[in-house]
Design brief:
- The chain has eight helices and eight strands; from the N terminus they run βαβαβαβαββαβαβαα.
- By secondary structure, it is an alpha/beta fold.
- It has one domain (3-213): Aldolase class I (TIM Barrel), CATH 3.20.20.
- Strands 1-8-7-6-5-4-3-2 form an eight-stranded parallel β-sheet.
- The model has no long low-confidence stretch (mean pLDDT 97).
Length: 216
Amino acid sequence: MPLIAPSLLAANFLHLQDECNMLNASQADWFHLDVMDGRFVPNISFGLPVIEQITKTTTKFCDVHLMILEPEKYTEAFCIAGANNITVHLEACTHLHRNIQQIKSLGMTAGVALNPHTGVGLLADILHDIDVVCLMSVNPGFGGQQFILHTLEKIRLLRKMIDEKGLPVKIEIDGGVTLDNAYEIVNAGAHVLIAGNTVFKAKDPIETIAKLKAIK
């Protein structure tokens, strides 16, 4: 069964405590927290003060996705704010290996995200150092976009790379995940499903999470 990581970017921020309580009562495995700087992606989301409050509400794994330039300047602060995993973008990191080592030196797991145009082959020399690969299945910056079908081929190729090397790396899919395409995504080789609007805009978010969790 996949790990389910609802994206708080789609939550109702006027009722954030209620949204966190709902996730805590659900079968969600991770809280997914998207940080955008308006430079690397054309949007601004939330930052350290909000994440610090969200992480206080839960004992679940908090997965922080930094869609920002120069993430190394903020890594320690996000660790203090309660991040369990930090994912940085390959496209934003000139010295990616150094970024990964910094994250791990602070006791967190480390992820690398790839934009839709970036090939998974570029991870060949770093794959053994990371814990999560986040494949963007939409262009990053905004929720509610449609899943890019070519992502399925990227999942298959990446899963083959991971399995051939015998690595415990998780493949995480971010963008356009729905109840209609989740089965195909999981069967292509994904381990973690990030779902924003699919969860938070559902009539029954807890039931929707349960349906995603039950996919085999």
